[in-house]
Specification:
11 helices, mainly alpha, single chain, MetI-like fold, 72% helix
Length: 266
């Protein structure tokens, strides 16, 4: 195995180490503390960290360790799922339009401009505010409505170069149909930049999910990082540890997703 291949494999291992360890640690914590993260214990309301409650308790006596780990796992799953769907949809659309060129590429570019110009968070806020009891499914669908646009734009830009390369022209000259050229040559060429965008998009989606919950239009069960931050702001004088737990957990989750696509390692 050549040194360059070993180096790339080492980079991939380092890239995945942080998010993998974080998810495994959160899973272990949830298995060890199998309590319902919404279980109330009024005798320990806003209690500071102790042996029984390592991160303390929030309003109603909820155990912050159970609540934070469950909310983190759900948010990571939501952000990763929406980002992957956006990657597939956006890359397919952008690569197909870029390979076709002409009117198709121009229309797709204008569509991306319109989607990215509109404040997607305001759209999500307005849609979820009309739903009586929003779930994570609702949040994911609303966020996915605009998350595909950056991937489509990146694929379009990449295909401006790729479609004129020798191997693509050779594939066409040898009778390769549009679908064959698209899936075997065009889309693989977009993977490096798409992967870099994947981590950034997932981290942004995690923060958006938390912001929606902070404003009260997130999942109705209250198990969300934004709900912990909101709760912490309300009791910041009496129990500052609540806000600290929510903010630090959110930051760690976003950093873990961002670590998946550090451009400096590509």
């Amino acid at each position: 195995m050549s040194p360059s291949i070993r180096g790339r494999e080492g980079d991939e291992m380092r890239r995945l180490a942080f998010p993998t360890i974080l998810v495994l640690l959160a899973l272990v914590m949830r298995l060890v503390r199998a309590d319902d993260p919404r279980r109330l214990d009024l005798t320990h309301e806003l209690a500071t960290p102790s042996l029984g409650h390592p991160l303390g308790c929030g309003e109603g006596g909820v155990d912050l360790l159970s609540l934070a780990t469950e909310a983190l796992l759900r948010s990571l799953l939501l952000a990763a799922a929406v980002a992957c769907v956006a990657l597939v949809v956006g890359t397919l659309l952008g690569a197909a339009a870029g390979l076709a060129g002409g009117t198709a590429a121009n229309l797709t570019r204008r569509l991306c401009d319109g989607v990215q110009a509109f404040p997607s968070f305001i759209l999500a806020l307005g849609v979820l505010a009309t739903i009586r009891a929003p779930s994570r499914w609702h949040v994911g669908v609303v966020l996915a409505l605009t998350a595909w646009a950056p991937f489509a734009r990146l694929a379009l830009a990449e295909l401006r170069v790729v479609r004129g390369l020798t191997y693509v022209e050779a594939a066409r000259a040898l009778g390769g149909g549009p679908l064959r050229v698209l899936f075997l040559h065009a889309i693989p060429a977009t993977f490096p930049v798409a992967r870099a965008q994947l981590g950034s998009s997932a981290a942004a989606l995690l923060v958006s999910d938390a912001a929606l919950a902070f404003l009260g239009v997130g999942p109705s069960d209250g198990v969300a990082l934004g709900s912990i931050v909101d709760q912490g702001l309300g009791v910041i004088v009496r129990a500052p540890h609540v806000l600290f737990v929510g903010a630090v957990t959110l930051a760690i989750g976003a950093l873990a997703l961002q670590a998946l696509a550090d451009p400096s390692r590509d």
